[in-house]
Amino acid sequence: SGFTEKQEALVNSSWEAFKGNLSQHSVTFFNAVLEKEPEAKNMFSFLGNGVDPSNPKLAEHAEKLFGLVRDSAIQLKTKGEVVAEAKLGSIHAEKKVTDAQFAVVKEAVLKTIKEAVGDKWDEELNSAWEIAYDAMAAAIKKAMA
Ligand code: HEM
Ligand code: ISQ
Q1: Candidates 3.30.230.10, 3.40.50.300, 3.40.710.10, 1.10.490.10; CATH matching 5-144
Q2: Alpha carbon distance 89, 100 (integer Å)
Q3: Which ipTM did the prediction report?
Q4: What is the pTM of this model?
Q5: Separation of 44 CA from ligand 1 center, angstroms?
């Protein structure tokens, strides 16, 4: 039932793969979000010119998001639950982020991790990311309320 050491290790190692080519994977990530949710372009101040691979803000923001999903995996393993900082709740409440948008970002995270790990991808790895993402999304939604 609990999040296992193996699942935590899978998330950690694929987080390293993501960081290994951060600028490329950040572009993949933003394109995947915008393909399903064009409105997101207006939600991020730094997307004024669309997805510009030379804009360092893309990587900065993507790194924060993926880093928090990794942190979620660590929290799940060490204490069995995930808590989000109050500020994360207020930012997303302010931007009026919806459940449907959380689902779009989830699919984009999974697609990006698949690209990052290449032939190391399997269902177990995918499922570990899903569990960690869902737990962090739930914690943010709770902090939004
Ligand atoms: C801001 C994390 C889901 C929209 C932030 C920030 C963090 C963060 C750390 C503040 C720093 C930064 O801007 O990079 C997360 C995590 C998510 C999540 C971990 C899922 C588990 C979403 C979703 C949306 C969204 C689904 C809607 C498309 C935004 C916006 C900002 C923001 C618009 C403000 C960006 C700006 O300053 O221009 N998020 N987020 N987030 N998030 Fe999220
Ligand atoms: C949501 N929150 C923070 C950063 C993000 C970067 C890309 C797409 C969605 C995001």
Answers
A1: 1.10.490.10
A2: 16
A3: 0.96
A4: 0.96
A5: 9
